[in-house]
Amino acid sequence: SLQNPQKLEQDQARVLHVCPFVLGGGYLFFVASPFWMPPDYSGVTASRIGEEQQAENRTIRLMKWDYCETQQNMEVILEIDSQAIDGIEHYTYRVMERNQGMVTATPVIERADLVVLHLENLPRKWAELSLQMRLPESKASAMNESGELGRFYTTRKAVHRVKKIEEQAPRQYEREVIEQTIQIHVQEIQSCEQRIAAEKQTISEAEETIRDLRSELKFETETEQLETQEQIHSVEAEEQAARERIQEQEQTIRELQE
Description:
Elements: H1 5-32, E1 52-55, E2 58-68, E3 73-82, E4 92-97, E5 101-110, E6 114-120, E7 128-134, E8 148-155, E9 160-161, H2 170-217, H3 222-257
Parallel strand pairs: 2-9
Antiparallel strand pairs: 1-2, 2-3, 3-6, 4-5, 4-7, 5-6, 7-8
Helix pairs in contact: 2-3
């Protein structure tokens, strides 16, 4: 049966009235997304634990990002090394899910050197999150109008999962940061040692190449000897560069062990 013509006109008018708001909201979210996710978005790369960002004489370091699926909550720890003299210790935190909008972020601890955030009521089908830490709007400077201090990302695949998230005493969070810092330093030292081993292999190969080239000199013509000498100098330069890189890695290890 055909619909009542008057009712059909009313339904059409209602759709036309609602559509601008729906489309407008979607457009605003689409336009706003680049401010939260990387501008060349093709899927974000999760920030690694220990990653640092610097702004406004502060270094913000991501020390923890845990997710409890049953609670649909997260816990994030940020360590702050501030050389600023502006006296600011309270910040603005904004969290956005790529497709589903804003997520509630509540500071459970907020100190000059440590921030613990609880992200609550996550969307069930969340995929990627962007966490921004900013200066209060009244404190943003002419050089940094947004007041942004750091931006970190996680994904459903990369996030560290836990069975339960509970608010803890400040001392417990401090202990977690210390333990995580030690673990990060151990991993960095291991990476340095691996790079040193690779450089030593480069040096060994360079030394062997130089020996072979020098042994050939006595059988060569004067022109060939000049070319061989140039090759020897080039390989010696590579060897020296490798030795310098080893010194840099050894210095990094000493600093991490302090």
